[in-house]
Amino acid sequence: MAPAVVAPAATPAPFHPDRVRVLKPGSPSPSGPVVYWMFRDQRSTNNWALIHAAALAARSDAPLAVAFCLSHRFLGAHARQLGFMLRGLRHLRGRLAALGLPFFLLRGDAPDALPSFLSRVGASALVADFSPLRPVRAWKDALCERLPAAVAVHEVDAHNVVPVWVASDKLEYGAKTIRPKIHRLLTEYLVEFPQLPPPAVPWTGEAPPEIDWDELIDEALREAGEVPEIGWCEPGEEAAMEALMGRKDGFLTKRLKHYDSDRNDPVKSRALSGLSPYLHFGQISAQRCALEAWKFRKSYRQSVDAFLEELIVRRELADNFCYYQPHYDSLQGAWEWARKTLMDHAADKREHIYTKEQLEKAETADPLWNASQLEMVYHGKMHGFMRMYWAKKILEWTNGPEEALSIAIYLNDKYELDGRDPSGYVGCMWSICGVHDQHRSPSKNNSSLESTAAVTSETVVSFCNILTTVNINADNSGNSEDLQREKKKKIHESNVKCQDSDVVHMHGQHGQLLPIPQEQNTIVEHQKEEQQEEAAAVRFSAYVHKPTPLHPSIVASSTVTTPPALTTRRPSRTRSQDDGEAVYVSCDKCRPTSRDKLISVVPLDNAAGHKHPPAGSSSPGPGGLLRSLFLSVTRRSPTAAAGVASTDSAASAVREDQWRLVAAELSRKLLHATRKRDEALLEASRLEYSLTELERKIDRLESHCRDLRASIQPGPAFGPSTAPFQTEAFHVAIADARAAVRQLARSLIAQVRLGPPGSRSSDRLTALIQHDDPWAAVQWRRNPGGLLFHMEALLNQAFYAGFEEDDEEETRLIDPAARCEASRAGYEAIRGLGWDEVLCKGTRHYSEGLSRFCDRKMSEVVGVVGWDRAWPEGLLQAFFEAAKGAWVVRLMARSVHPALPVLRADQGARFDCRFMEDVAADRVRRLTPANVRMMVAPGFHVYNAGGGGVVKCTVLCAYNSSNSD
């Protein structure tokens, strides 16, 4: 991770308003208690959601309570996850009680348990944790539907350093695209937490019931005891901070130094932070971890940067994927090129096919994969470096990518302590479907996978030690010390046997180790042979032979430099009779006839030494090379027709070495040719797929053109002549909409003036006007009444942004007549809608489109103005009237085909009285408008069957001093 530009702020910072989203506005004058629905961030400190809930309660002089909904085995949770969470909640309740906050444990899913609880306590607002997972988002949608209109619902991202909707507004392709976006925002969001204020009003409502935690935990273990708990990770906030900053074995205080160099070594598991379970359950804040890690950056810069990359960028990239990709756990969520490649190879022949049960029990022929699987089963966590190898082998051993992805997610969620997490889903999607990965050829991916498999037996033995240690610690306490010592002794003996063999096989029963027979072909053995052959071929290609004299009397002085790959190939056969050192010679009889067609010389490969072959022996020429190699393989002597006596052992060694070297060279070239062929086939497949996609798009375009031609043929059927446009009603609607926006501007200005002088809204408004028109900002300070035009312009810009874009419902309608009819029906449904009706039933009861429009524009207005307080009822009513007016204008403008175009005036454009109207013309009659300083409200080009007209856009102008222009 590249370092941030500025170090995090050491002083506490106020709550950033962009960290919260208003899912449901609620009553403008709340008076009931505030309830914090805790779900993903289970902690009492360094919790932005709890801080925001406390601020809401203090602002309304209302009490605050914390509620947790205990769902029945959420996403298939087992005893391992449930036990860890419940024990952490037990500690959390005591910490909240010390802060004066009641804790309610509700049984059931949130949409079923929360509405009745909120009704009993008379709550006015609900603050919820953010989660990108589908079930939680569906719960929040259901809550917004079921809760009364007076109850507000806020969502706070307290899990990420930068909120997911702030970091990016789209699905990111990979870490390289989201990293610069997050880095730019770190100085604004990576800040110190403020102190949680004590409750302004004590809780006087329903008392939280007593909880029998032991019985609750036992019940969870009985129902979901298939996967037992683990003992290496203690739950709770205190344990999480101890794991981070503990004096005895804290990650930052004791193990951070080697994180950068050892984190990808599966044997050195202590180099990892071990914080993922605490981060998953929210028992520690990622922002707190980042702030504490930054303090060590001067001492361990590389390790801290690598840790922050994983902690911030990679975690938030996973949340980004699950938030913007609804199919985050299926093949549909993969990129199109990945789906195409996976489906093209789904029917490929596989060497092994394993069932889900075999994989779960680690009953495969791959000892490394078995070790990784059993580490996860017994330890509750797999080393991060092995996860990609583990998942890719599942793809290799199953019938297709859908089955592989399903099994990988099933095993991960079942056994990982931090399973059922966006990072887990993205990890499986990355390994199997190529999410967040670059589009590479299959040959490169295969070589990368094989290199991961090339591990030594020590690696597997280390995994065995981890698993057996966990099993010993997990035994009942009733086991005697003698049994424990006997068990450790057997494990040690088994490990010694494993170290004596080349590879190790670990079976799926409590870490029992069995040596693999030497004749069994494993991935490790194949990999070693391929690496040796490739290394020999590469080194031989760079080898330069130095010719030596022919006669034995000067053999000792004709030593040649030996390629390293050749010096260790075989044990010594003969030694030099002169000095006993390894000697390599060549002569005319040892060379091929033509040096241009074959290798120039074949050295006598011997690590201990060679004796020069007899004068009667020779190497075969070009014509007899293949025959010689064949005879070397079949171990038969050449016939007398060859004219060469080959009974001498040195001549036999020459032919054998000749065969090995040429075979290595041919193997290297064949490997290279195979890779080139795979790349060419992949490129051809991509081109074929692109052509198919292009043909499909052309077909769709032709079909769309036919539909357009069919709709155009009737002529006046969709024109202004058949359905006369209500011009007068449209003018009235525009006038009402402008008046409503002007009233909202007055209300906002009044609220800003009522606020404190240094409030965020006042400062934000001043900054906006200063940016748009510095002269106007000066005038506002002299005459605050001139602010109205600027506020009205800002609001109109927000309301009419995206005016021409289709709504969600309109995109489903292709027929222009249907679109026009839908707009007319929408206009008739809401034109008489009043504020009192909205308060009773909400806007969604009358119009889905208007409800979405109000929610979207409310967020835009809050962001533009920088509003940081509750909305009074009068201000909410003014906002509704302005939003309704803009929506009515939009419906009327789209009730004809084509829709009425919007007229806008850019800043600095020359004033044109045909399309523009100066809002200050009455006060400056002696001056002539010159250029547009600001557009206050947009206009429209209106047409009907009898003619046309223009609704001028209103502008604020800069003026000339005379009328001569």
UniProtKB/TrEMBL annotation:
One of its GO terms (molecular function) is deoxyribodipyrimidine photo-lyase activity. The keyword Flavoprotein applies. It catalyses: cyclobutadipyrimidine (in DNA) = 2 pyrimidine residues (in DNA). Residues 32-164 form the Photolyase/cryptochrome alpha/beta domain. PROSITE patterns: DNA_PHOTOLYASES_2_1 (PS01083), PHR_CRY_ALPHA_BETA (PS51645). The keyword RNA-binding does not apply. Residues 663-711 form a coiled coil. InterPro entries: Crypto/Photolyase_FAD-like_sf (IPR036134), Crypto/Photolyase_N_sf (IPR036155), DNA_photolyase_2 (IPR008148), DNA_photolyase_2_CS (IPR032673), DNA_photolyase_N (IPR006050), Photolyase_Class-2 (IPR052219), Rossmann-like_a/b/a_fold (IPR014729). Residues 555-565 have a biased composition (Polar residues). Keywords: Coiled coil, DNA damage, DNA repair, DNA-binding, FAD, Flavoprotein, Lyase. Its EC number is 4.1.99.3. GO terms for biological process: photoreactive repair; UV protection. Its cofactor is FAD. Residues 554-580 are annotated as: Disordered. It comes from the Eukaryota. PANTHER family: DEOXYRIBODIPYRIMIDINE PHOTO-LYASE (PTHR10211:SF0), DEOXYRIBODIPYRIMIDINE PHOTOLYASE (PTHR10211). Belongs to the DNA photolyase class-2 family. Involved in repair of UV radiation-induced DNA damage. Catalyzes the light-dependent monomerization (300-600 nm) of cyclobutylpyrimidine dimers (CPDs), which are formed between adjacent bases on the same DNA strand upon exposure to ultraviolet radiation. Required for plant survival in the presence of UV-B light. Not involved in the repair of (6-4) photoproducts. This is Deoxyribodipyrimidine photo-lyase.
